[in-house]
């Protein structure tokens, strides 16, 4: 075997070493998601909003406070003597207004129904956060694994450059200067790609800074991507089953509770057609006459009632406004359902295409690329091939590996997005919702 062939054959025995990052405190997918859901401030703010509405519902069902009046009546101005005139009296009165029909009970019910939407809003937010955080973590994982794949082949390219430079310097074999330049060029391109991937890695991790403290983001992500589990067999579901699942989505259920509150508000508005009653009682104390004769004290009682006779510009319009507001919420529910359905089928189509591509890569492209790279390297080792073909085959194989990785990650991201639309089936979110719902 010639010295050239020996140098070339040496590259066949190169052990590809994976550049490993420091694995101190790696960010796992489950750990990141759990931390984000536990420390999401939006959820706490939403709980406070619910508590505020619940407190308002208690206040809304209470009659207005009675009114106490105290007065000195009919005091004569020619002497300001309390016992001078028989009409002079010290009067204490108490009045109370009552609600129109069942308006208080209905208003209380409407607010209570409105408060019931908040646990579902939190469940929707949890599902959103879970999908967003999962996608950000997977993008960081994608960049990290791509860096490792490139570093694996980078070691081989460095070996090839050393071999070609040694062969060219000794004028052995068929090595040409352009082979060295080509190898160095490809290595420079890999360096540029590594810088780009490092940027993507940092960007994906910084995306998590909305939910995680910045000191948790200094290390790598876990090398185990913890495959995203599908909440439902998406590709086997019938359209009717999809509609049923989406009808139970927290975002839709939250709107349904808001709609119930709006429907009750219509009944509240209709109560304005009924009269409002009030009651008052009074006690008047009178002093004795100047001659010492006793005067009787006075007691009074009365009932007041307002008569809603002219309803065109007030009661009718209030009912119309309540009806229009309820119809607007109905439309919002329809729009939300249509949006969820459209996005669901878009992601489902994406999942099907990714599955087709993954099968193509695993069964054909990756094995064929590996065979091609091995064949060109063997030919070059035996002085029967072109170095540029070796480089081209190795670059193609590397790109195919990265493409296969991207397909796997895109599949996981698509599943995470689909899981958002199947949030009604997420036991983790449902458990959190059950703990946070006070009136379910």
TrEMBL record:
<keyword id="KW-0175">Coiled coil</keyword>
<protein>
    <submittedName>
        <fullName>Outer membrane protein TolC</fullName>
    </submittedName>
</protein>
<dbReference type="Pfam" id="PF02321">
    <property type="entry name" value="OEP"/>
</dbReference>
<comment type="similarity">
    <text>Belongs to the outer membrane factor (OMF) (TC 1.B.17) family.</text>
</comment>
<dbReference type="InterPro" id="IPR010131">
    <property type="entry name" value="MdtP/NodT-like"/>
</dbReference>
<dbReference type="InterPro" id="IPR003423">
    <property type="entry name" value="OMP_efflux"/>
</dbReference>
<feature type="coiled-coil region">
    <location>
        <begin position="180"/>
        <end position="207"/>
    </location>
</feature>
């Amino acid at each position: 075997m010639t010295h050239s062939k020996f140098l070339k054959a040496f590259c066949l025995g190169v052990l590809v070493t994976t550049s490993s990052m420091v694995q101190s405190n790696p960010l796992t997918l489950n750990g990141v998601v759990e931390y984000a859901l536990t420390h999401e401030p939006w959820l706490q703010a939403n709980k406070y909003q619910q508590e505020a509405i619940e407190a308002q519902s208690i206040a809304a069902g209470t009659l207005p406070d009675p009114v106490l009046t105290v007065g000195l009546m009919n005091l004569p101005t020619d002497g300001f003597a309390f016992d001078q005139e028989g009409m002079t009296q010290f009067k204490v009165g108490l009045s109370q207004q009552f609600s129109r029909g069942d308006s208080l009970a209905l208003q209380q019910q409407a607010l209570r129904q409105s408060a019931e939407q908040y646990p579902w809003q939190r469940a929707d937010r949890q599902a959103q956060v879970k999908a967003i955080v999962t996608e950000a973590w997977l993008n960081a994982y994608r960049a990290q694994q791509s860096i490792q794949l490139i570093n694996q082949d980078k070691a081989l390219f460095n070996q090839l450059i050393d071999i070609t430079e040694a062969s060219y310097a000794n004028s052995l074999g068929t090595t040409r200067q352009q082979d060295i330049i080509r190898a160095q060029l490809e290595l420079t391109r890999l360096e540029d790609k590594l810088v780009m991937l490092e940027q993507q890695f940092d960007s994906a991790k910084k995306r998590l800074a909305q939910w995680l403290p910045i000191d948790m983001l200094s290390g790598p992500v876990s090398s185990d991507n913890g495959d995203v589990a599908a909440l439902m067999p998406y590709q086997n579901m019938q359209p009717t089953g999809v509609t049923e699942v989406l009808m139970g989505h927290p975002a839709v259920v939250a709107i349904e509770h808001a709609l119930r509150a709006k429907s009750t508000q219509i009944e509240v508005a209709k109560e304005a057609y009924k009269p409002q009653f009030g009651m008052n009682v009074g006690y008047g104390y009178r002093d004795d006459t100047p001659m010492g004769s006793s005067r009787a004290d006075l007691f009074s009682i009365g009932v007041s009632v307002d008569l809603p006779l002219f309803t065109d510009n007030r009661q009718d319009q209030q009912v119309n406004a309540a009806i229009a507001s309820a119809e607007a919420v109905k439309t919002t529910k329809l729009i939300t359902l249509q949006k969820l359905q459209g996005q669901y089928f878009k992601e489902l189509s994406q999942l099907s295409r990714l599955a087709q591509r993954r099968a193509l890569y695993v069964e054909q492209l990756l094995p064929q690329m590996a065979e091609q790279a091995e064949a060109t390297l063997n030919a070059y080792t035996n002085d029967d091939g072109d170095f540029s073909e070796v480089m081209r085959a190795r670059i193609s194989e590397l790109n195919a590996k990265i493409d296969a990785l991207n397909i796997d990650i895109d599949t996981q991201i698509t599943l995470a997005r689909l899981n958002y639309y199947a949030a009604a089936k997420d036991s983790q979110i449902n458990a959190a919702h059950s703990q946070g719902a006070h009136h379910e």
